[in-house]
Each structure stands twice: as structure tokens, then as C-alpha cells.
Specification:
Length: 415
């Protein structure tokens, strides 16, 4: 009898998940596949670029850390402006198309770039495109999603995005093998999914009709003073996200750590594959669990997982412990990133969602810049092990701050 009851419970959980997936709007699915295609392109390049900069162009780890930190910070900082614009004009799709289109154009630059300066410029332009599209896209998902499916919708988008994150490094591995470790030839492969992404977005995604969401032209224009309406619960979500972002750094350091422990250059993209497989597998279930009120608990587990990941990476002397740490890094990302996006959507007024995601990403961008520059300096000065030990220490401090915040978790539970 207990076995039968457990079986019936498992069947009910599976049916509930299937029902939630069936109810997620078509536009959210389309945006998920758009993200997947762009991630196929971007992660192919991202998984090879740190090694290309270090081996092919002679850049130091500190230089790579600064470039990666600034690049990701640019993406997150630009989101504050694009998000606010999407709220002001009550239109989101045009900005999303502009952002993905700019990122697609930069994919032609990487295989043609003759110097490090061109690579850096293309990397920054690519991240500007990410910044332009990010907040309006997330706000559009929130506009399209029923309130009881918001966690599942963001989790689905994140899962499809991360499937692209798996496929991109796999394409990189295959391209490097086929083209005999020719970085430029491998970069050309990234052009195809980038172009497909833009076509899918243009023809496959529609904004909600007027009157059904914040994306309506009937409402009055926003003013700067409206930012005050974001409120205390939103501020708590942003503060927690900033702490978590400050405690970790760019995934480029995972690829560099693989090279440091002896993983062959052509096989280094497997680091991103392993991380992304775990990330993709966890993102949707974590989002669905957040819809059932488990958000604060998932955040806490995410902090703990990042600490263990940092410790494993700090002590890695070979591939086994390295990939264990990378898998835990992916688990941490899956438990936290979609959940934080859903919390932003739930805590902000509907007509300020673009602005809310923009401010959220601005704060996280500043934190990521600081974390990546510090990681690059620590790596060059004291070695990779201390870099990850410091990451674990910062994560522990952030976790304790969350736990001692008291009302923070309660606010998140009410969000």
C-alpha cells in the first residue's frame, strides 16, 4: 500500500508538470527557442575565446578577467536602459530584435578579427546586444505568462537557453576536431544559429494584444519618480542577487582551470557542456518548485552548492574533481538564476517590469565586474586555487547575510 500511494503521488507530480508545460504560452516557448539558438552561437565562441585569447593572442589571465568582467557588466548595465525604454514606449519586441540582431552581427567579426583589440570590440558589442534584449525579453515573458506559471515559464526559458549552452560547446569540440584546432574556422560555425535566432524571433514571437498586459499603448507614460513604486520586496530580491553575483565570477575561469589541470585545449569546451547539462536539467524543475513556495529554500541550497563547487575547483589536480566542481557550479546556476528572474517579475508592478529587470541586471553587472577583475588578479598573483577559495569565502559570507537577514526570506516567501 505505501508503495502504491508513492506511485500515485509520483504520477500526480508528473501529470502536474506536464500540465504546466502544456499551459505555457506559445510566445514563451518561442522566446525559449530564440534563446537556445543564440546560446548555441554564443557559447561556441565563449567556450573557445579564453583559450584563444591566452594561447593565440598571448593575453594574461588578468586581462581575460578584465575583458570578461567588463563584457558581462556592459550587458547587465545596458539592460537598465532597454528595460526602462520598453516600459516607457509600452513595446518590447523591437528592442529584443535589436539586441539579438546586434549579437548576430558580431558573430561575423570573431573569425575575421586580426588582433586582440578586434576580439575585445566584438565581445563588448555582443554583450551590448545581450544587454539591449535581456530586460525587455524577460519582461515580455512575464507579460505573456499567467501568474501561477511564472516560475515554470522562466524555468523553461532558462532550460532551453541552457540546452543551447550545452550544444554550443559540443559544436566547439566538433569544430575544433574537424578543423584541426583552427579557432577562426570554428568561429564561423557560430554564424548559422545566430542568424536562425533572429529569423525565429521576427516571425515567431508576438507581443500581447493591447489591454492584456503592460505592453499596451493606452497607459500614461512613465516618469522617473515611478521607480519608487518598485518597493521593499523588490529591493530584497536585488540585494540577494547582488550578493550571489559578487560571490562568483565569469565561467571563463572554469575553462582556464581546465587548461591549468591538464585538459587538452581541444577538449576544454567539455567544461561548459557539463556545466550546461546540469544547469538545463535543474532550471525548469527549480522554477516549478518556486511556484509552490520553495524559493527561499532553493536559494539557500544554491549558496551551499556554490561553496562546495569552489572548494572542489580549488583542490582539483585532475579532470575528475574538476568536472565534479563544474557540475556543482551548473547545479548552483540552475537552482538560482531562473528563480531570481521569477522573483523580480513577481515583486515588481506590471508596468515597471522592464525597469525592474534593468535595475536588477545593472546591480548584478557591477557585482560581476568586480568579482571577475578580482578573480583575474588573484589568479595571476596567487594562483588558481586561492581564487576559488576566496570565491567560497565570499559565498559563505553572502549566505550568512541571507540567513541573518531574517525578514528577507519571509518577504521572498510572500513574493
Amino acid at each position: 500500500m505505501p508503495f502504491r500511494r508513492a506511485t500515485r503521488l509520483d504520477d500526480a507530480v508528473r501529470e502536474s508538470r506536464a500540465s504546466a508545460l502544456a499551459r505555457i504560452p506559445r510566445g514563451v516557448w518561442a522566446l525559449g527557442f530564440v534563446s537556445m539558438c543564440m546560446d548555441l552561437s554564443s557559447e561556441l565562441i565563449h567556450s573557445l575565446l579564453p583559450l584563444y585569447m591566452a594561447i593565440g593572442l598571448g593575453a594574461s589571465t588578468l586581462t581575460i578577467g578584465i575583458v570578461e568582467g567588463i563584457a558581462e557588466a556592459i550587458a547587465m548595465m545596458v539592460k537598465v536602459f532597454s528595460g526602462a525604454l520598453s516600459d516607457y514606449f509600452r513595446r518590447r519586441k523591437a528592442l529584443v530584435v535589436l539586441g539579438y540582431g546586434l549579437a548576430a552581427v558580431t558573430k561575423f567579426v570573431f573569425p575575421l578579427a586580426p588582433t586582440l583589440a578586434w576580439i575585445v570590440a566584438a565581445r563588448f558589442a555582443d554583450r551590448v546586444g545581450k544587454g539591449i534584449r535581456g530586460a525587455p525579453r524577460d519582461a515580455l515573458i512575464a507579460d505573456l505568462s499567467p501568474s501561477d506559471l511564472r516560475g515554470a515559464s522562466f524555468g523553461l526559458r532558462q532550460a532551453l537557453d541552457t540546452i543551447g549552452g550545452v550544444g554550443g560547446p559540443l559544436l566547439a569540440v566538433g569544430a575544433m576536431a574537424y578543423f584541426a584546432s583552427d579557432f577562426q574556422a570554428a568561429f564561423w560555425v557560430a554564424v548559422v544559429p545566430a542568424v536562425l535566432c533572429v529569423l525565429l524571433l521576427v516571425f515567431g514571437v508576438e507581443e500581447p494584444k493591447a489591454g492584456t498586459s503592460a505592453a499596451t499603448g493606452a497607459a500614461p507614460r512613465l516618469h522617473i519618480r515611478d521607480v519608487r513604486r518598485l518597493g521593499g520586496r523588490y529591493a530584497i530580491v536585488v540585494a540577494i542577487a547582488a550578493l550571489l553575483t559578487l560571490a562568483r565570477f565569469s565561467e571563463a575561469f572554469l575553462v582556464l582551470r581546465a587548461k591549468d589541470v591538464g585538459v587538452p585545449t581541444a577538449m576544454a569546451p567539455w567544461v561548459m557542456v557539463v556545466m550546461s547539462v546540469v544547469y538545463a536539467g535543474v532550471a525548469y524543475p527549480a522554477g516549478a518548485a518556486a511556484d509552490r513556495g520553495l524559493g527561499p529554500r532553493l536559494l539557500s541550497v544554491g549558496f551551499a552548492t556554490l561553496i562546495v563547487s569552489d572548494l572542489a575547483l580549488a583542490n582539483a589536480a585532475g579532470a575528475a574533481l574538476l568536472f565534479a566542481g563544474v557540475a556543482l557550479w551548473g547545479l548552483h546556476m540552475g537552482l538560482t538564476q531562473g528563480l531570481l528572474a521569477a522573483l523580480v517579475a513577481a515583486s515588481a508592478p506590471a508596468d515597471l517590469r522592464g525597469t525592474a529587470f534593468g535595475v536588477f541586471n545593472l546591480v548584478c553587472g557591477i557585482a560581476l565586474l568586480g568579482a571577475s577583475v578580482l578573480a583575474g588578479w588573484l589568479w595571476d598573483t596567487f594562483g588558481p586555487s586561492l581564487t576559488f577559495y576566496v570565491g567560497a569565502a565570499f559565498t559563505a559570507i553572502a549566505w550568512m547575510a541571507l540567513a541573518r537577514g531574517g525578514g528577507g526570506a519571509a518577504e521572498l516567501r510572500r513574493t
